[in-house]
Amino acid sequence: MTQSARKYLIAGNWKMNLNAAEGAALAKDVVSLVGSQTDVAVCVCPTFTALESVSQEVNNSNVQLGAQNMHFESAGAYTGEISAEMLRHLFCNFVILGHSERREYFGETDAIVNKKTLAALAANLRPIVCIGETLEEREAGKVNEVIKTQLEGALVGVTAESADTLVIAYEPVWAIGTGKTATPEMAEEVHAEIRCLLAGLIGEDAAQKVRILYGGSMKPENADDLLAQKNIDGGLIGGAALKANSFAALVESAAKAGK
Ligand code: 13P
């Protein structure tokens, strides 16, 4: 399989920002800038409360909708939680799982991320599974060890049939919201390692189909070099996704890089 089989994906993680009206306004601007292009897959992930209003704005465009989290059960006594089916009913195609902020502040473990990943796949929701090391782990030379544990932990029971659907996001924790980006070479080294681990889990052909996004202070100024790397198939964008112009510039970067 050639690399071109993996179309770039630029996904915006809006985190806990923008209410329903503000989210709709941003989505409207994003749609007007990049809503009709087809070279790059584009997705925005608002808060739960903005999903419906954003859904109405991106409807009939090429901008897809994603959520930032979900519960692994389909229904029941889980106060405050939302299921994969509920997200599908709001026309979500993607869901971010195991973001480092959820791991750090909400105690999400690899086992929980695994249950969520399997539940998302079963509901036809495309999981964007986040993995990445802390600065301490990097300095201790443990990057590969951490990546392997998180990836294998998240993907227990995931088969080669899910390869087209599955998305992995490598987000070095020290690069998130800090303005510090992994150099393209540093990022590519880890992305190549992730693909190698995927090959061990689901086979080489399937591993070539999985999109691996980079996340962590990605912005228009550094995107070209990151997206030029062989195993970087797009970005999971935080801060730069909150402005339509910078988000659109990242989509343009990906279109220019041309997978
Ligand atoms: P920043 O782009 O703000 O560093 O956030 C990255 C991120 O956490 C995306 O999920």
Brief characterization of the structure:
With 259 residues, the chain is α/β, with parallel strands linked by helices. It has helices at residues 20-34, 51-58, 84-89, 100-106, 110-122, 135-139, 143-154, 184-202, 204-209, 220-227, 244-257; strands at 9-13, 41-45, 63-67, 94-97, 126-131, 167-170, 211-215, 234-237.
Structure description:
The protein is of the alpha/beta class and 259 residues long. It has one domain: Aldolase class I (TIM Barrel, Alpha-Beta Barrel). 44% of the residues lie in helices and 15% in strands. It contains eleven helices and eight strands. Strand 1 (9-13), helix 1 (20-34) and strand 2 (41-45) form a beta-alpha-beta unit. Helix 1 (20-34) packs parallel to helix 11 (244-257) and helix 10 packs parallel to helix 11 (244-257). 1,3-dihydroxyacetonephosphate binds at residues 13, 99, 171, 176-177, 215-218, 236-240.
Keywords summarizing the entry:
binds 1,3-dihydroxyacetonephosphate, 44% helix, 8 strands, single chain, 259 residues, alpha/beta, globular, 15% strand
Using only C-alpha atoms, the radius of gyration works out to 17 Å
Could you report the average pLDDT, rounded to the nearest whole number? 96
Query: What's the helix-strand series?
Result: EHEHEHEHHEHHEHHEHEH
Associated small molecules: 1,3-dihydroxyacetonephosphate
The CATH topology assignment is: TIM Barrel
- Overall SS class: alpha/beta
- Corresponding CATH architecture: Alpha-Beta Barrel
Main β-sheet: number of strands, strand sense, barrel status?
A: 8 strands, parallel, barrel
Number of domains: 1
Strand content: 5-15%
User: How do the strands line up in the largest sheet?
Assistant: 1-2-3-4-5-6-7-8
